[in-house]
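Appendix B: a complete holo record

For completeness, this appendix reproduces one full record from the ligand-bound portion of the collection. The bound molecule is pyridoxal-5'-phosphate. The inputs are the chain sequence and the ligand SMILES; the output is the full three-dimensional arrangement of the complex, encoded as structure tokens. No fields have been trimmed.
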Amino acid sequence: MVHHWQQVLSDHWGITAALTPLNGEYDQNFLAQGEHDYVMKIMRPDCQASFIDLQCRALEHIRTQAPDVHVPAVCRSIRGDMFLAVADEGGAERLVWVIERLPGKTFAEFKPRTDGLMFDVGRAVGQMGLALSGFAHPALERDFKWNLMQSDWILDCLDMVEGHDRRALLDCIVAEFSAVLPLLRDLPNVAIHNDVNDYNILVRGSLSEPPRVSGLIDLGDMCAGPRICDLAITCAYMVLGQENPEKALQSVVAGYHSIWPLTEADVDLLWPLLRMRLAVSVVNSALMASEYPDDPYVVISQKPAWQFLENPSVSGDLIKARLRAACGLPVTGAAPRILSWLDHQRGQFAPVVGKPLDGMAMRSLSVERSVIPRDPFAAETEAMADGQSSENIWLGYYGEPRLIYTGPAFQTGPWKASNRRTVHLGIDVFCVSGTQVFAPVPATVHSVENCCGRPGQGGVVVLRHETPDGDPFFTLYGHLDPEVCGRLKAGQQIKEGEAFARLGDAAQCGGWHPHVHFQLILSTEGIAEHWPGAADPDELGLWGALSPNPAALLNLPDADMVYQPADKTKLLAERARCFGENLRLSYADPVMLLRGWRHHLFDEWGRPYLDAYNNVPHVGHAHPRIQAVAADQLLRMNSNTRYLHPAQVAFAEKITSKLPESLSVCFFVNSGSEANELALRLARAASGGRDMVTPDHGYHGNTTGAIDLSAYKFNAKGGIGQSDWVHLVEVADDYRGRHRREDPDRAEKYAAQVDKALAAIADRGGKLAGFIAETFPSVGGQIIPPKGYLAKVYARIRSAGGICIADEVQTGLGRLGDYYFGFEQQGAVPDIVVLGKPIGNGHPLGVVVTTREIADAFARGPEFFSTFGGSTLSCRIGKEVLDIVDDEGLMKNAQHMGTQLLAGLRTMAERHPLIGDVRGFGLFIGVDLVTDRNSRTPATQAANYVKNRLREHRVLIGCEGPADNILKIRPPLTVDDQAVDMILILLDQVLDEAENLCGKTGYPPTPVFNR
Ligand SMILES: Cc1ncc(COP(=O)(O)O)c(C=O)c1O
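The structure of the chain with pyridoxal-5'-phosphate bound, as generated:
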């Protein structure tokens, strides 16, 4: 058979190609691969020529009218025909046509389904629709089951669907559809694709390019209909299998609207049409199932549609408003009229607390300007009644992101680092409890509720008002004295300026200073009585439109009442102006971080992030004990080591208590760099030598001497190169290096490289000062040298008269779980230990600890003094950090959580070919990504993709190693089970995406043909 059609292709189209059969519902299609790739379509024997003519002409029309839309070109035959009638092997006449094969994977097979991709699907469908709207063909007028306008045929078949609840649901969908059918019939009919499903959209994307639609195919279901049907059908497929279907829907619709603007009426039709299309689909499969009872696929294929239709958390109630807001259209027809009336009447409304509010002080509770609450995860918000005289009135901003909304009801996802509803949708008016609350305009009571059970809500009243044009709107008053609940009844009339409630007291308002939360609401449609007073920052388009700034009703200017969070774009520009280009930012979309708590951070909108990267906040961000100690010392005095203070000795004793006895003398400085610089001086003073041996790819700091010792920097592009006194040995990387794990002698072999370095020093007539290494090389790629390596190196260095320096900036202080310092794991005792980063938990602090003998040698030189190193403040903070590690059992936690994390990562490695190696101790972890496990080629792009995608999912990690392909996981030691789960689950998901994008076995992505 294949040979026959190959011959046809060659004879009539002049194309020589190998044919591979493709799946097709009715027709015989082949993938034709030759110089170019084509799809050869051999239609079923009874196929009408007009049907093929329709498709070919539509494709040619789209390609000429809208060259930006990617649809396949029709390859005309040698004679110039779009299609031909050719006899098959059995002699039956078949219509045959050939189209170009477009690149990309089907949407169904593609991951990730980003918001950007959903938007692009909408755009592509809009572009194609717009092009088709000028296309006419007699075959477009056809009756068939997939024509949405004719879809009420399913009414007669509902009995085929099993389950009473399901049939009831379908009844309801059909009723909603019937209600909008007259509106649909009034809309103009145009040519529509009518089947943009997930197998008819082709997508291209790579690890470095965001996914985009690369083609729309299969016009076999074309018909004439209202264009909104085309979009609704697309949407019906795009919501399936989505974690957040509303968001996906909103992106598709916004994309379409950006190309071919929709009206409010169009948008309102989408939900009933989308559901009707899915209803047709599930009923059709029920019919098929009865026809083909042995085909399990018929039922399985309908699973996602039922899942969506039956998903209780996907509600159509707010969908109209959501989709309108996504298109920038008014959320209700009356919204523009109401807002304009309110604006016009500004200054004439009855004062809500009986006094004019203009000129009253503003008080911010924002993420940026406030430190309330201290613990943004605590179930109860602490009192915020501080500092203000209760006689004063002050105001709280509209649109202000706040961390005070801490309860689980505000969390919008499964993790602590999931988004939460942070953005205030009202204006707060703070004044004394018992202050009367007045209606700004005549009102009818809409609802009264006692919400004292919910923290800080008190009594809540919603009033209904009408503009002179008869447009209804609502105002909400929260934190009232709950006595109002016994007094006011829904339906009760309230006059303009009439007092109807009083402010609750602090006890009724969750300890807050008494205030009324005043909110404007444009529509209650689709909202049960629980109106959100705060919105998810990523949902502000919807909620901000439904509950706009109520300043006009308070007779205040809008601009003064709306909070302006720090503007990221502006800050970026200013940063570029103020700093050099090599001051880098992490992530393609940099993060602005304003608050932190333990292992979480918060951006300017209060979005939380799990910090799985920063080792400086060793005992957690914003630790209250560190804050207290710092505040206490700053209250007293802060001076230097030229004066006696018990804190200096206390800190030194605490550190040395953790170290081998020989390491007993401390020097305090301000950074890791400075500490390494000093360590170098100590080594030189003690040895009398100058030359240093150090592993490749190391990093020891940014000062002149430290850079000389850091191959990671001096050998980097534009680096200063290697100094003559620095001698590199290979880093003892037994995964990718010269000597690998299967070699039992690898520790010795790596250590033996020191012999060559010593010989090189002798050759140049130099003298050895010592050896410096990060105990576990971090920027080199979270490397764990083979056990015993360091002890063997130290022995060689010492016998050559050198001093051994352990840079424990990354590894020290319990991070490794099993070991307080990395050198313990290596069975080695250094002569000098360097500490930095975590020891100040964010306060600039570095420490060098050495032997008495080395300290004495150094003391023969000039006085050692560091103005800020060893300041009283630094000593107290440093000691506190070490005490907290002990008191809170953080080393044990690192061991426990690290074990879980490493185990999870190792299990994950079994199903992710991208993972070449998982290594680490405690919470010092590296995940080495490779394009191929045999060659161990670094998967740099994949690592960058994973890092940035995890950041989008609110997990902060980094990439390390000479090729930047090693995922670095190095969180504060406070991480808990949930944090470990979040890292594992999201990493798994993101690795899946990365593997999908690059093809599991290597680059470049292999195109998979659509069916
Ligand atoms: C191992 C190591 N040593 C020294 C330093 C330098 O510390 P600082 O940046 O505090 O000067 C760093 C910083 O990343 C480091 O990782």
